[in-house]
Write a structure and sequence with these properties.
The complex is a heterodimer of chains A (270) and B (465). Chain A has 270 residues and is of the alpha/beta class. Chain A has a single domain, classed as Alpha/Beta hydrolase fold, catalytic domain (Rossmann fold, 3-Layer(aba) Sandwich). Chain A is globular, with a radius of gyration of 17 Å. Chain B is of the alpha/beta class. The longest helix of chain B is centred in the C-terminal third of the chain and has 20 residues. In chain B, a hairpin with a 4-residue loop joins strand 20 and strand 21. Chain B has 11 helices and 26 strands. Chain B starts with a helix and ends with a helix. The chains are: A alpha/beta (270), B alpha/beta (465). Chains A and B meet through helix 1 and helix 4 of A and helix 3, helix 6 and helix 11 of B.
Chain lengths: 270, 465
């Protein structure tokens, strides 16, 4: 994040990202306590459904208006086989800006990188990166080690196939895990490549507090990558041992979201 | 700065001075005006940790863009002339489902959503106009306000800094002509033009070939019985779309290649001539300048209307007679409605003009068109006429203002050094080429040059922040 904030954005003015239909699923609390809205951004392959499963309602029950979106080409959003990382970032900023108040962005997996980039295009109230995949060759190495057959096709432009053992702990019943894996889609080939080779995100605007959450047993994001991601924002990762990459779907999904919302409560009261 | 701590502990204490009382607002910054620039100033100051009070003379936000406002110059058919990406705040995009060139009412609703999203309304005193802003000891400011239009009680508050964002497109600039007083037809300024019903069946003379003048002439082509369009010189009329893209997006694509101004001018003049044709073909004077040497005029409809004989281009006006208008070359025309689309003059009625260091012609000489030489806690926001949308510029300009003020608090010596440089660079122009007609282009900037200059200052402020 050594790079500075660029104010001259000729590329954005010359070639704006084309519009796309975006799926947004919302859950609102019974009483408006004046807390900021929370926007969940699922990572590559996942759609809004991944958060609708548990975290969305749970967040609403704790007094936050909760929204889960699908990036273009994912879940119920419009197909986008040519989408770039920039288009995904655009989607997040568009949805965030459409909310009535300054939003908290929570990105999972590769959407951790998408959210990190969105933070330099939108002054979020706060941000949480859950098991963030910041990409680079180390990510590829980890994926090849744990799932060579699912990863190799992605290197030649095919889809990245994540398997159950990468995403969930053994505590999650086999058939539940299978159901989730069957719902997985894929990011565009271009975006997959951009995950490996991309510029460092610019620093965030508006100086939001940023929390990094993960699991030391995550088979997609190594512990060292979590530390590195947290260090970017001047902190240490909040760890949930024994869980898989998909913290929002794993058996003990309640622990991380409660910890995130406790952190939010504390940050917002400052 | 030594007394700032005890100010903080009693932020609203009334200081007795003569008969009136002055309320000290401590470290709060005062923003004057809740138009696009004022809102950006408020949002960015708050983001940098400042408390903000904003005074707005109207009862709504949006300034010039709010058609309900007395001083708003917008007319029913007004659309943005920059396309969406370069017309929006860089950290709060317009919905991408909106058209390339949104309508003014969409733009207002965008500003309203911005104010809502960043919770700005609660910091605005609506219906309060500022009557006086005066510097007091320790680089602080006394701001005197009263409820708009009344001669009632005035209230004076003391602030750590003032950001002036009162706009520069509301005080009509009316030209003077011999015989204008005796002329029997109706004469209005474009600011009083609201919709096409004013034109229906009339014989209209539109004076001025700025973007507004061209818009009104094109509208008159459809509704008026007859329309003449008078301009002092030939201009380049860029179409809204060129080579399948909004003009400014094509221009940005060319600028990305970092080609020199001359090459850009050649390319775009060529593209305009190939697609819409040379102005001469339409009976217009040949431009006496290259493209980008005057404020760009983006209008696809005017040349089309001329080509259909619905608008007659005419030369400059010599004098008015009782029932007619005499033009250069002796021609006489008989309009019954004359619309002066002759622009606006900047006005700061509440501020001693000397504070902004005017040059002999009256143009304020400010650093980055924002910072006066001698008053480090005074800034002007949005006093720019860019060749693109204003919002990206005013966003980064107000971020710069906020960082500047923050640096003054955190590292006064560093701020001093920067202030000295600002004084030396005040009045610089941010435009690569020469500009014709200087009075019209007091605040003209090339957005690329201006943003580069802002980037340099921001980087410097970043190091210390």
């Amino acid at each position: 994040m050594s790079r500075r904030l660029r104010v001259l954005r000729l590329r954005d003015w010359a070639r704006p990202v084309p519009p796309a239909r975006r799926e947004v699923i919302s859950a609102t609390p019974e009483v408006d306590e004046g807390k900021p809205p929370v926007l969940f951004v699922p990572g590559f392959g996942h759609g809004a459904w991944a958060f609708v499963e548990h975290w969305l309602e749970h967040t609403a029950a704790r007094g936050y208006a909760a929204h889960a979106m699908s990036l273009r080409g994912h879940g119920g959003s419009a197909p986008a086989p040519q989408a770039t990382l920039r288009a995904y970032v655009h989607d997040v900023v568009q949805v965030a800006a459409s909310l009535p108040r300054q939003a908290v962005l929570i990105g999972h997996g590769a959407a951790g990188l998408v959210v990190a980039r969105a933070l330099s295009r939108y002054p979020a109230r706060a941000a949480v990166l859950v098991a963030p995949v910041f990409g680079g060759w180390a990510t590829l190495a980890a994926a090849l080690r744990h799932n060579p057959l699912g990863t190799l096709p992605a290197m030649v432009g095919g889809g990245l196939r994540l398997n159950q053992r990468q995403l969930f702990s053994r505590e999650l019943p086999e058939q539940v895990g299978r159901r989730y894996v069957e719902q997985l889609g894929r990011a565009s080939a271009r975006a997959q490549w951009q995950l490996l080779v991309h510029r460092e995100p610019e620093p965030p605007v508006g100086d939001p507090p940023v929390l990094v959450v993960g699991s030391p047993q995550d088979r997609v994001v190594p512990r060292s990558a979590l530390d590195r991601a947290a260090r970017r924002y001047g902190g240490a990762p909040l760890l949930f041992p024994g869980m898989g990459h998909d913290l929002m779907l794993d058996a003990r999904w309640r622990e991380p979201i409660d910890a995130i919302l406790d952190w939010l409560d504390k940050e917002l009261s400052r | 700065m030594s007394t700032s701590t005890d100010r903080d502990t009693r932020p609203s204490a009334a200081l007795e001075r003569d008969e009136s009382s002055v309320y000290d607002r401590g470290e709060t910054v005062c923003v004057i005006g809740a138009g696009a620039s004022g809102l950006a100033a408020m949002k960015n100051l708050r983001e940098h940790g400042f408390a903000v009070d904003c005074f707005e003379r109207e009862t709504g936000i949006g300034g010039a863009w709010n058609w309900r406002h007395e001083r708003s110059p917008v007319y029913a058919s007004a659309h943005l002339i920059s396309s969406r990406p370069s017309a929006e705040f860089p950290d709060f995009p317009m919905p991408d489902s909106w058209p390339d060139f949104p309508h003014h009412s969409q733009f207002l609703s965008y500003l309203e959503r911005y104010a809502e999203h960043f919770d700005l309304r609660s910091q605005i005193w609506f219906g309060m106009e500022v009557v006086r802003v005066t510097p007091v000891d320790g680089d602080r400011w006394e701001v005197t306000s009263r409820s708009t239009g009344s001669s009632g009680t005035e209230r004076t508050q003391r602030y750590a800094a003032v950001v002036v964002a009162n706009g520069h497109n509301w005080a009509p600039n009316m030209p003077e002509y011999e015989g204008l007083a005796e002329y029997r037809g109706e004469v209005i300024h474009a600011s009083a033009y609201k919709d096409a019903t004013q034109l229906r069946g009339r014989r209209v003379l539109v004076v001025g070939a700025g973007n507004t003048g061209c818009d009104i002439a094109a509208e008159a082509a459809q509704h008026a019985a007859k329309c003449w369009h008078s301009s002092r010189r030939g201009y380049w009329y860029a179409p809204k779309y060129l080579l399948g893209r909004p003009f400014d997006q094509l221009h940005a694509a060319i600028q990305r290649l970092r080609v020199p101004l001359r090459v850009r001018q050649w390319l775009l003049e060529r593209a305009v001539r190939l697609t819409v044709g040379h102005p001469r073909r339409f009976g217009l004077p040949t431009p006496d300048h290259r493209i980008f040497e005057s404020h760009p005029i983006i209008n696809s409809q005017l040349l089309y209307a001329i080509g259909h004989g619905r608008v007659t281009p005419v030369r400059d006006i010599v004098r008015f007679r009782r029932n007619s208008v005499e033009l250069v070359g002796g021609e006489e025309i008989e309009p019954d409605l004359v619309i002066f689309a002759t622009g606006y003059r900047p006005r700061f009625e509440f501020l001693d003009p000397e504070l902004l260091d005017p040059d002999p012609s009256g143009r304020p000489t400010l650093f980055l068109h924002a910072f006066p030489r001698r008053y480090p806690t005074l800034a002007v926001a949005g006093l720019l006429q860019p060749d693109s949308g204003l919002l990206p510029l005013v966003h980064w300009q107000t971020v710069t203002i906020a960082r500047w003020l923050r640096l003054r608090r955190a590292a006064p010596e560093r701020a001093h050094a920067l202030q000295a440089r600002a004084a030396a660079e005040a009045g610089r122009r941010y435009h690569p080429g020469k500009l014709i007609d200087s009075a019209r282009h007091w605040f003209e900037v090339s957005h690329v040059d201006y943003l580069r200059a802002l980037q340099r200052v921001l980087d410097e402020l970043e190091v210390t922040a």
